[in-house]
Design goal:
The chain is mainly β. The longest helix has 15 residues. 19% of the residues are buried.
C-alpha cells in the first residue's frame, strides 16, 4: 500500500499529464519539460516516456532531451503512448499482471482509458464482440498504486490542498475502474466522483453505478449511494440486475449493501423480483441476500431467510436451483407454484429445498443435498420429495440415497437406495424399492468384488441377487478367476404365487506362453427351471505361430470339452478344429483379387461329425478414374 502523499501525486500528476497541459499533436521542448516534471512526481522518480512510433535515428543534438509524441487529445477510449482504441463497445482483454523492473523503477505505465459511459453488458447466451488487442508486454499499475485520467485539472497537485478533475474522469486501481464526469480530491485521501459515476471490472461483464461514489485512495474502498448493478457472470441467458440504497465495496471488489433489490427481468416493474434487508455481491462468485421476500409483480409470494444466486458456471444440476418459482395451471392438480430454494455452505455441502403447492392436491416438500468429507473418504447425495394428497387423504414419498465410501486405498464401496411411490398424476403404480451395494478390494495382483441387489414392486414381486468374483494373477503367464452368483425371485399375480432360486458358478484359468494361449473354462448353472448349456469343462488352445512363413496368413483354434443341457438331460463331449486361411491377395491384369477360406470341423462324443466350409473371393477392377467394378 502506498502512502497518502504518493497516491495523491499519482492521481493529480496523471490527471495533469492527460489534461490541458498536453496539447494535441507534437509537443514543444517546453511542453515536454512540463510533462516530464509532472511525471517525475509519479513514484517520486523520473519515468521514461515511450513514443508512439519508435525510431533508431539519433537526435541531431547530443544534449537535447528526446521529445515524446502524443496522440491528439480526444474524448473517449484512448491508450497513452500507443495507437488510440477505436470508438466501440469492444471488450478489452484482462489487464496483465505487474511486470517487475530489475532497476527498481516502475518504468512507463500504460493505462487503457474506458468509455465515457458504461458499455452495455452483453446478456449471457449472446455472442460478445471480439476483444481488441494491446501490447502484451505493457505493464500495469504496481500493487497499491492508483492512476487518474481527466480532461482538465483545477487546483493544486500538492498534498494537503484540494483539487478538481473534470471531464471524462477515469480512476484505475486494483481490478476495477471508477468513471465519472467530475472528481473532487480533499487533499488527504478521499475522492468524490459525481456526474453519472460507475464502477466497472476489467472483464467488462459487471457494472455498478450510483448517484455519487466516494473513493478512499488509501484503503481503495468505495461508498456508492443508490447503487444499481448489472452482471452476466456465470449466467447461461440474460442478466442479473440488483439495487441497493447504500453500498460499500472492499479493495477486492466485494460489495455490501442495504435494502436489496434483485431481478432477472429487464422490466423492473413487472415479473419476479426479490427484496431483502442486505445484499452482498461477490464478483465472479455469487450474490447473497438476507431476509428475502419474493414478489410476483406487486404481490408478495413468500418469505425466505437467505438466498444465494451463483455468478459462476455450474454444471451440477444440484447446484443450479431456480430462484424464481414456476407458476402455472394443471386441470388435474389445479394452479401451482413450484420453487427451488438453493443453499450451500461450501463445495462439501450444498443443494436446494423443493417447495411445490397445488390448489387441488396440497403442499409438497423436498430436499436435494450433497455432502462430502474434505479428506475424500465419503460422498453422499440425498433426494427426497413427499406430498399429501388432500383429495384422497393419502401420502406418497420418493427417496433416493447414494453413498461412496473409500475405506482404504485398496477397499472402496458404493451404496444406492431408491424408493418411489409418487409417479405423477393419473398414474397408479405400486411403490418400487431397490437396494444396491458393492464392495471392491483391489491390489496389484488380485481383485475381489462383492455385490448385493434387491428390487421389489409393492407386494407383487421381489428379487434378490448376491454375487462374488475373485481374480488373481498367480504368475506373469498364469491367471485364475472365479465368479459365484445366487438369485431368488418371487411373484404374486392374480392370487398365484411363484418362487424360483438359482446359482451360477464360473471359473477361468488362463495360461499364456510365447507360442500358444490356453483357456480352461468351467461354467455350471443350478436352477429349478434350467436352461442353456453347461461347460464341464472346456479347453481352448490358440497357437500364435501356425505356419508363420506360409504364402498367406493361416490361423487356427482347437476346442475340446464336455457339455450338458440340463433342460433335456443330455450330455456329451465335443471337439472343434477351426482353420482360417487368408486373405490371399494377388494382382491380376490390373485388378485386385482377394480370397478367404474358413474350415470348421466338429466331432461329437456320440460319433456324429459336422463340418462347415466358407469361401469368399472378390475381384476389383478400376475402370478409368471414376469407376470401380467389383465381383
Amino acid at each position: 500500500m502506498v502512502t497518502a502523499r504518493r497516491s495523491v501525486c499519482t492521481l493529480l500528476c496523471l490527471a495533469l499529464l492527460y489534461s490541458g497541459a498536453i496539447p494535441g499533436g507534437a509537443t514543444t521542448p517546453a511542453d515536454s519539460s512540463t510533462a516530464a516534471s509532472a511525471l517525475s512526481l509519479f513514484e517520486g522518480q523520473r519515468c521514461q516516456i515511450a513514443q508512439v512510433t519508435p525510431t533508431d535515428t539519433p537526435s541531431p543534438s547530443p544534449s537535447a532531451v528526446p521529445t515524446p509524441a502524443f496522440p491528439p487529445q480526444q474524448r473517449g477510449p484512448a491508450q497513452l503512448y500507443s495507437t488510440p482504441r477505436p470508438q466501440s463497445s469492444v471488450t478489452p482483454p484482462p489487464v496483465p499482471t505487474p511486470t517487475p523492473n530489475p532497476n527498481g523503477s516502475p518504468g512507463t505505465i500504460y493505462l487503457i482509458r474506458g468509455a465515457e459511459s458504461p458499455p452495455p453488458i452483453t446478456p449471457a447466451g449472446h455472442a460478445a464482440p471480439a476483444p481488441s488487442t494491446i501490447p502484451s508486454s505493457a505493464p500495469t499499475l504496481p500493487p497499491g498504486m492508483i492512476g487518474l485520467l481527466a480532461d482538465k485539472v483545477d487546483g493544486n497537485v500538492e498534498l494537503g490542498k484540494p483539487g478538481y478533475a473534470t471531464g471524462n474522469v477515469h480512476i484505475f486501481y486494483g481490478t476495477d475502474e471508477l468513471v465519472g464526469d467530475k472528481a473532487y480530491f480533499d487533499g488527504a485521501r478521499s475522492v468524490k466522483v459525481t456526474g453519472h459515476p460507475y464502477l466497472i471490472n476489467h472483464a467488462k461483464d459487471s457494472t455498478l453505478s450510483g448517484d455519487e461514489i466516494d473513493f478512499d485512495t488509501i484503503d481503495q474502498t468505495s461508498r456508492i449511494t443508490n447503487a444499481v448493478g448489472t452482471s452476466n457472470e456465470g449466467l447461461e441467458q440474460g442478466l442479473v440486475h440488483f439495487k441497493s440504497d447504500l453500498m460499500h465495496t472492499d479493495p477486492d471488489g466485494v460489495g455490501h449493501g442495504t435494502k436489496a433489490y434483485v431481478t432477472t427481468c429487464e422490466n423492473p416493474r413487472g415479473g419476479y423480483h426479490l427484496t431483502g434487508k442486505t445484499v452482498t455481491y461477490y464478483p465472479g462468485d455469487k450474490i447473497v441476500i438476507t431476509k428475502v421476500i419474493l414478489w410476483l409483480g406487486a404481490a408478495a409470494v413468500f418469505f425466505l431467510p437467505r438466498v444465494v444466486i451463483p455468478l459462476r458456471t455450474i454444471v451440477d444440476e444440484t447446484r443450479r436451483p431456480s430462484f424464481f418459482p414456476e407458476i402455472g395451471y394443471d386441470q388435474y392438480e389445479g394452479a401451482y407454484v413450484k420453487a427451488k430454494l438453493g443453499f450451500g455452505k461450501d463445495l462439501y455441502y450444498y443443494g436446494y429445498y423443493r417447495v411445490e403447492f397445488f390448489t387441488k392436491v396440497g403442499l409438497g416438500l423436498g430436499y436435494v443435498g450433497t455432502l462430502a468429507k474434505k479428506n475424500g473418504r465419503r460422498a453422499a447425495a440425498i433426494n427426497y420429495y413427499g406430498i399429501h394428497d388432500r383429495r384422497t387423504n393419502t401420502s406418497s414419498h420418493n427417496l433416493s440415497l447414494q453413498e461412496q465410501e473409500n475405506f482404504s486405498q485398496a477397499l472402496r464401496g458404493n451404496f444406492n437406495f431408491n424408493y418411489q411411490s409418487n409417479y405423477g398424476p393419473l398414474t397408479a403404480v405400486p411403490a418400487n424399492t431397490s437396494l444396491n451395494a458393492t464392495i471392491v478390494h483391489t491390489t496389484s495382483h488380485s481383485s475381489q468384488d462383492y455385490q448385493f441387489n434387491r428390487s421389489a414392486v409393492g407386494t407383487q414381486s421381489s428379487s434378490d441377487a448376491f454375487s462374488f468374483s475373485d481374480s488373481n494373477q498367480l504368475t506373469q503367464a498364469l491367471s485364475q478367476s472365479e465368479n459365484v452368483s445366487l438369485t431368488r425371485s418371487s411373484s404374486a399375480y392374480g392370487g398365484v404365487e411363484q418362487s424360483t432360486a438359482g446359482a451360477h458358478v464360473t471359473t477361468l484359468t488362463h495360461l499364456q506362453t510365447k507360442a500358444i494361449d490356453y483357456s480352461m473354462t468351467f461354467d455350471k448353472s443350478f436352477s429349478q427351471t434350467p436352461s442353456g448349456v453347461d461347460r464341464l469343462p472346456e479347453l481352448q488352445i490358440r497357437p500364435y505361430l501356425f505356419f508363420p512363413h506360409f504364402i498367406f496368413p493361416v490361423s487356427s483354434q482347437f476346442t475340446i470339452g464336455n457339455y450338458s443341457e440340463p433342460a433335456n438331460g443330455f450330455a456329451t463331449s465335443r471337439a472343434d478344429l477351426d482353420f482360417s486361411l487368408g486373405p490371399a491377395l494377388y494382382k491380376v491384369f490390373g485388378s485386385d483379387f482377394q480370397a478367404n477360406l474358413h474350415v470348421d470341423q466338429y466331432a461329437y462324443g456320440t460319433g456324429d461329425l459336422k463340418a462347415a466350409i466358407t469361401q469368399m473371393m472378390s475381384l476389383s477392377t478400376p475402370l478409368g478414374s471414376h469407376f470401380v467394378n467389383s465381383i
